[in-house]
Amino acid sequence: MRRVVRGFWGPRPEPVEAVADRWLRTLDGIAELVPQAADVWSQVHGNGPATAFTADRDALLGALRAAQSATDWSDLTGTGLRLVGTGAAGWQAEVSGLAGGAPEFLLQSLAIILHAPDEAVVPEEALLTLLARVWEPDFGDVSDDDVLDALEDDADYSVGDPVVGRTGYLSPARAALVPDDLETVREPLPGGGELLSIAAPGDSATVVRVYERLREAGALAPLPRPMDRAVL
């Protein structure tokens, strides 16, 4: 089963060293939470084959600096990196990010895509909590293909809109707009944001209903464009 754990935020200019540190904390967290997902990492490039990658700070710093040296790089986009890890049979992890920039329209993001056996227990909420703690996003979600299809078909969701999935994360200003009677489990996280436990796998209808309530309450309002801050 394919699971997607994502976080999104607006402009947050950072030195490449700070972005490398966030990447390292992310990979270390994945290794702790789902050690079976990635024994060996490789870096995916825009051109040419993937290359072996060592998940340490020096390698991350080198890869990010190399991305910034490309002729088409701009701090208005951010610095991209994509890694793929292979692990035990049936497991694979992909981590891709675009961070450290000052974009006016394109959100910065970090996504963890896990392929796991259907019967496997995956700590989805812990992975989203990790992402929230490390990257301090504006919003985030745990979704799968069925959830995203249901949101697009039944709730007019478009790629780039603030969103929650089976589990959601909302930054402090967004969390303050969550209706008190919303039927979800709400867990405050360090920093003031909240983790929302919304639905079990397969229950896309509940995700759609909660998404619509949050959108009506303003908790999923998009950042104003051109963007001038990282979070709502």
Q: What is the helix/strand order?
A: EHEEHEEEHEHEHEEH
Output the strand order for the largest sheet: 3-2-4-5-6-1-7-8-10-9
* Secondary structure: number of strands: 10
DSSP strand content: 15-25%
**Shape estimate:** globular
Rg for CA atoms: 17 Å
Strand count, sense and barrel status of the largest sheet are: 10 strands, antiparallel
Termini separation: 32 Å
Poorly predicted ranges:
none
Secondary-structure-derived class:
alpha+beta
Helix amount, in percent? 25-40%
Mean pLDDT: 94
**Helix run count:** 6
Features:
alpha+beta; 6 helices; 232 residues; ten-stranded antiparallel sheet; 10 strands
Task: Please provide a written account of the structure.
- It is a single chain.
- The protein is α+β, with helices and mostly antiparallel strands and 232 residues long.
- Helices cover 31% and strands 24% of the residues.
- The protein contains six helices and ten strands.
- It has helices spanning 16-33, 57-68, 124-135, 145-155, 172-175, 204-217; strands spanning 2-9, 40-43, 51-53, 79-86, 92-99, 108-115, 139-143, 167-170, 185-188, 194-197.
- It has a ten-stranded antiparallel beta sheet with strand order 3-2-4-5-6-1-7-8-10-9, with helices on both faces.
- A hairpin with a 7-residue loop joins β2 (40-43) and β3.
- α1 packs across α2, α1 (16-33) packs antiparallel against α3 and α4 packs across α6.
- The two termini are 32 Å apart.
- The mean pLDDT is 94.
